[in-house]
Write a structure and sequence with these properties.
Blueprint: H1 3-12, E1 18-23, E2 26-31, E3 34-40, E4 43-47, H2 50-57, E5 63-65, E6 74-81, H3 85-101
Antiparallel strand pairs: 1-2, 2-3, 3-4, 4-6, 5-6
């Protein structure tokens, strides 16, 4: 496994009660059965609330997640390249808390 993938896994495993799974055939981490991060094209992808979403999109090379390259990006999901790996844990925490807070 490449360095990017190993780093993705190390970030995802830092959170309690997560499970490794798949989303659109891509590796992901879930909390209570709901994905909050995934790994795609050597980038970590985060499900984020509006404010954090905007901040993540401001990072150079970041973009809305479009797993099928269909021009139908997923508005809450931001794909952040490995060049910003120092931000991955912070963004993963925001994604984890966001998805956890939206569950009943």
């Amino acid at each position: 496994m490449a360095e990017e993938g190993k780093f993705y896994i190390s970030v995802g495993l830092k959170f309690p009660l997560v499970e490794q799974s798949q989303m659109f055939g891509k590796p992901c981490f879930k909390i209570n059965g709901k994905p909050f991060v995934c790994f795609f094209e050597n980038c970590m992808v985060f499900k984020l609330p509006a404010m954090a979403n905007s901040e993540a999109l401001s990072l150079e090379g970041s973009k809305l997640f479009d797993p099928a390259a269909s021009l139908r990006s997923m508005k809450e999901w931001v794909q952040v390249p490995y060049t910003h790996k120092t931000q991955w844990e912070k963004l993963a925490l925001e994604a984890y808390q966001y998805v956890r807070s939206t569950q009943g």
